[in-house]
Amino acid sequence: MEKAVKDGAHITFGRIRKVMSRLKISAISYLNTAPLMWDFEHAEAGAELVANYDISYTIPSACAEALRAGTADIGIIPAAAYTTVPDLVIIPDVAIAARRAVRSILLVGKTPGERRGDPLSKQTLSKEVVSKEPLSTEQWLTQLRTVALDTSSLTSVALAKILFAKWLGGARAYTAMAPDLDAMLGACDAALLIGDPALQVDRTRYFTLDLAEEWVARTGKSFVFAFWAIRKQALAGRNGRAIAEVFKKSRDHGLSPKRLEAIAQEWAPRLGLTVEVIRVYLTHNIHYYLDPPCLEGLGLYYRLGAEVGALPEAPELRFV
């Protein structure tokens, strides 16, 4: 009887230990994270990941809050969140970044023939309006007074504020809003959209400015939108390098040509985009490495963000 009790206690303790060992991951449910999550979402990676990690999906800003609250141990956080969430360490070499136009971080504005909440056809416009030369992007920017900012992203909001303050004519009146383009443009002159909603914008209907492209043109630096971060407390008693290697391998596996094609085939109907558009986005627009040029761009972003009041001072970058 005593032995049975001891055996039962041992089994119970083993189960508790196993449950306690699972690290909670807060991930983003956007197309651009799909390659990073490959091993975590596919059985071919083996049962080890299933046994060691619990995954939940949300928007970028909520990932940061989950780490702050301690409801997640690891998150693909917006770069801006590193300045506000204490005691984080970064998984090296893995990022969601851009070295050119990214296509999924857009400032979107109404054309001259569109009024708030009421797109007008040319047939209904006055001859005076129709006869005017189309506005250039530069002219459009000078006319912007109000900007709706997507509440899904901390990093892109700060990026927009930096670009306006440093190069685009000064700060505007900003309003935080959910990512609903019609509602945003019903309330403001322009809207900042990120992620899949930005990819789905019909850019023939609007003025658009790709903020990553604008950043690269103005600074000559890459731009980092997000990276994996771990709460220091969650690393206690764990092999941080081994954990980092899990995330690097998942990225590498997800970026293999065969798996990128599988991602494109899966996401094309989901987003209403062509397979080729998604293929180009994942291979050309998104850069998945936190390499030295990205680290330089990240440092400049933090410095300028603090300079214009868009971000607090950033702590030193600490890696696993």
Account of the 3D structure:
- Helices cover 44% and strands 20% of the residues.
- With 320 residues, the protein is α/β, with parallel strands linked by helices.
- The strands form 3 sheets. The chain has a 5-stranded mixed sheet. The protein has a 5-stranded mixed sheet with strand order 9-8-10-5-11, with helices on both faces. Strands 6-7 form a two-stranded antiparallel ribbon.
- The radius of gyration is 22 Å and the shape is globular.
Helix-strand blueprint:
Blueprint lengths: L1 H20 L1 E6 L9 H4 L5 H6 E6 L1 H10 L4 E5 L9 E11 L6 E5 L4 E2 L2 E2 L7 H5 L5 H7 L2 E5 L4 H12 L6 E5 L3 H7 L2 E5 H5 L7 E4 H9 L3 E9 L8 H15 L2 H15 L3 H11 L6 H16 L13
Parallel strand pairs: 1-2, 1-3, 8-9, 8-10
Antiparallel strand pairs: 3-12, 4-12, 5-10, 5-11, 6-7
Helix pairs in contact: 12-13
The total strand number stands at 12
Low-confidence stretches: 2-6, 8-20, 113-131
The SS-based structural class is alpha/beta
What integer is the average pLDDT?
87
Separation of termini?
A: 47 Å
Task: Write the H/E string, N to C.
Answer: HEHHEHEEEEEHHEHEHEHEHEHHHH
Number of distinct helices: 14
Helix content: 40-55%
Strand content: 15-25%
What is Rg? 22 Å
- Could you say which overall geometry the principal axes of the C-alpha atoms support? globular
Largest sheet: 5 strands, mixed
Please state how the strands of the largest beta sheet are arranged side by side.
2-1-3-12-4
